[in-house]
Design brief:
The protein has four helices and four strands, in the order αββββααα. With 132 residues, the chain is an alpha+beta fold. The strands form two sheets. Strands 1-2 form a two-stranded antiparallel sheet. Helix 3 runs antiparallel to helix 4.
């Protein structure tokens, strides 16, 4: 077998493989249909209780896995100039960060900020201090 025959055999084999691959893929795939009427298999985290609470409205019952646990919000929200802001996000630290980290971030932000934003940063820092 010379090199010409070897090259022809390889091209025929590669062509057959490409043809098999294209045929075996099938046609264009249709997107998955979302069935909104199907029941969810996971239990809901909160369920409405049949009896209304004394204050009116709908009472929510907690999921059994989180029953009895106390949730704590790590974020501190404050209002400034008619908008609601997260104090930790304004200072660029993770929510629930220690007072030392918050103070360092506040001082660094004050050093690199302009005069107009000092009051905004100070309001965010005071909101965190009042929370802790």
């Amino acid at each position: 077998m010379n090199s010409q025959d070897f090259l022809t055999l390889n091209l025929v084999g590669a062509g057959a493989f490409i043809f098999w691959y294209l045929v075996s893929r099938g046609g264009a795939r249709r997107p998955t249909q979302l069935n909104m009427k199907a029941k969810d298999s996971a239990p809901p985290l909160m369920e409405a209780t049949p009896e209304p609470p004394p204050t009116g409205g709908v009472a929510l019952r907690r999921h059994p896995d989180v029953e009895g646990t106390v949730t704590k919000s790590l974020n501190v929200m404050f209002n400034y100039n008619g908008h609601s802001w997260d104090a930790y996000e304004v200072l660029g630290v993770p929510a629930g960060a220690s007072l030392k980290i918050v103070t360092e971030a506040y001082q660094a932000a004050i050093r690199r900020s302009d005069k107009e934003s000092v009051e905004f940063l100070e309001t965010a820092y005071k909101a965190i201090l009042n929370k802790k």
